[in-house]
Specification:
The complex is a heterodimer of chains A (259) and B (260).
Chain A (H helix, E strand, L loop, with lengths): L2 H16 L5 H9 L10 H18 L8 H11 L2 H13 L7 E5 L5 H6 L6 E5 L2 H13 L5 E5 L5 H4 L4 E6 L9 H11 E11 L10 H6 L8 H11 L2 E7 L4 E6 L2
Parallel strand pairs in A: 1-2, 1-4, 2-3, 4-5
Antiparallel strand pairs in A: 5-7, 6-7
Chain B lengths: L4 E8 L6 E7 H9 L4 E7 L4 E7 L4 E7 L7 E4 L10 E8 L1 E6 L7 E5 L2 E7 L5 H18 L5 H14 L8 H9 L4 E5 L1 H10 L10 H6 L6 H5 L4 H16 L3 E5 L2
Parallel strand pairs in B: 3-6, 6-8
Antiparallel strand pairs in B: 1-2, 3-4, 4-5, 7-8, 7-10, 9-10, 11-12
Helix pairs in contact in B: 2-4, 3-8
The chains are: A alpha/beta (259), B alpha+beta (260).
Chain lengths: 259, 260
């Protein structure tokens, strides 16, 4: 099942939704450069991206589309897809932080990452600027029987102020992060990690050609740069070392260590 | 606050025909004596309406009325039999413009939370979990602050039942929104977004911990008033229905539309 192909097939719906809008031309240009990918589309992701395509014009009208219920629904579906879950699990099981400090899920969205992290760690913190996302994280934690979690309202800008305890791992993976400048996020993450702590980034990064997710992000008003080489360079410039990259079909997993 | 019942009156509700017993105590009679009208009202909760029995200082039945809306500055003493539906709370007083109270006897201690022009006092069966209880009561109070204007006696008592059913649980982030929804529930209509529901159905089996069958149950409630959607035999079921509706609302599958 191909995640790439699912996003690619939903692109035609996105272009339909954008018809007549000022921003349609930019989308058409981007979409024309996206390769179709191979294999059968992942049915869940096809449905999720098709849903997002239908809602894109309305979401674009909102000041922060990633805080809207429709985007929350899309995010949960996206994060529960095989591609996302397998890369996330692989990333979390591959890292060995020096202590059992907290795991922070930054801009947690519906909290799927913490659900997976709870299988390995006991001190979990969700940081998100929206009450409804934190409610959803709590619903999820209670649903799976996890009690050692904290909910913190805010975003990356106030991260050092909001999280005072030692942090071993920061996960930057939910689709909310597509709307933040990852370069700036990485800097704030570096400042809260304990030495030897890990940053785990999971995103539809681009490798010399546009990802089929990029037109969706642009349609919703997002502008952050998702070029894989650029992100990797920034991580090094911030001081991260031992950067490891794993490419999936649609998503890329990067893990980096604060020395 | 009420003490031992001096007299029991049996009345039939003109709205639903239910035969109910109203327990009169010395304090209710004293309230009638000190009232300018010489009457005191005792309320009995009947789901979507409230029966108020008026009695005089001698404890005589002076008529009944059925209310849906709570009148500002009114003092309502709820029939203590209402407390039999509660497991943690053994008496309460809610002040939000009007005052609604329900006590079986004089409590030894009350927990009080207040802020702005609203206040909640509650006597608990056990004070062992007073910390979480206060946290829940504060969330309730915040919900009351936001929803008091749209509340009536029925929704207020329903929200008290749900509060009671929550006290044994760990406090929830944003619970105030849940209480606000209950208080406004007569003016909120459940609207289901079919396209969002279809997406949810594709991955619902990956989040089995979400109340089983919640989606199907709530989909059936499209167009229902929230208060009707919450109607249940017990407070725990009402709470689970509320949480199911709000879980789907967070995901945009359900919208709570305000109606007149």
């Amino acid at each position: 099942m191909s995640a790439w192909r699912a996003a690619y097939e939903a692109l035609s719906k996105l272009l339909n939704s954008a018809k007549g809008a000022e921003w349609a031309a930019e989308l058409r240009g981007l979409a024309a450069r996206v390769s179709p990918g191979k294999g059968e589309p992942d049915p869940l992701l096809l449905k999720a991206f098709t849903f997002l395509a239908e809602r894109a014009p309305a979401l674009r009208e909102e000041e922060r589309p990633w805080g809207e219920p429709a985007f929350r629904l899309f995010s949960e579906a996206f994060m529960l897809s095989r591609e996302f879950m397998s890369l996330l699990r692989r990333g979390l099981t591959s890292i060995k932080p020096p202590s059992y400090g907290a795991v922070v899920d930054l801009h947690s969205g519906p909290g799927v990452c913490l659900e997976v992290a709870a299988e390995l760690w006991s001190r979990l913190i969700a940081v998100d600027p929206f009450d409804e996302n934190l409610e959803l994280v709590e619903e999820r934690m209670r649903g799976v029987g996890v009690s050692g979690y904290k909910l913190v309202k805010g975003d990356y800008v106030g991260l050092a102020r909001l999280v005072r305890e030692p942090v071993s791992v920061v996960i930057v993976a939910s689709p909310s992060n597509w709307f933040y400048e990852l370069r700036e996020v990485a800097g704030r993450v570096y400042s809260v990690l304990e030495p030897g702590g890990f940053m785990l980034l999971l995103a539809p990064l681009e490798w010399g050609e546009p990802s089929p997710v990029t037109p969706f992000i642009r349609a919703l008003g997002g502008a952050s740069r998702l070029d894989a080489g650029y992100i990797e360079d920034w991580l090094r410039m911030e001081g991260f070392t031992r950067i490891k990259v794993r490419r999936g079909d649609l998503l890329t997993l990067m893990t980096a260590v604060k020395p | 606050m009420a003490t031992r019942a001096l007299r029991v009156l049996r009345v039939t509700c003109p709205a639903c025909g239910e035969l109910c017993e109203v327990h009169l105590d010395e304090e209710t009679l004293a309230a009638a004596r000190s009232s300018p009208t010489g009457l005191a009202g005792v309320a009995d909760f009947h789901g979507d309406h409230i029966l108020v029995l008026y009695i005089d200082a001698e404890g005589r039945d002076r008529g009944v009325r059925v209310y849906r809306a709570l009148q500002r500055w009114e003092v309502i003493r709820v029939n203590p039999s209402f407390l039999s539906y509660m497991s943690e709370i053994r008496g309460f007083r809610v002040s939000a413009g009007s005052v609604v109270e329900c006590f079986q006897d004089s409590p030894r201690a009350l927990i009080r939370v207040s802020g702005g022009d609203v206040e909640l006092e509650a006597a608990l069966r056990s004070f062992e979990r007073a910390g979480p209880a206060v946290a829940w009561m504060e969330e309730f109070l915040e919900g009351l602050r936001r929803g008091a204007r749209a509340a009536d006696l029925g929704t207020l008592l329903l929200s008290m039942l749900i509060l009671d059913s929550c006290l044994a649980l760990k406090p929830l982030w944003g619970a105030a929104r849940a209480f606000e929804a209950v208080l406004k529930s007569r003016r909120l209509v459940v609207r289901v977004d079919r396209s969002a529901a279809e997406l949810f159905k594709v991955y619902a089996d990956r989040i089995r911990w979400l109340y089983a069958g919640a989606l199907d149950a709530v989909l059936e409630m499209d167009g229902w008033r929230l208060i009707d959607a919450l109607a249940a035999r017990d407070a725990i079921t009402a709470r689970e229905r509320l949480f199911s509706v709000l879980a789907l609302e967070r995901r945009g599958i359900v919208r709570l539309e305000v109606v007149a």
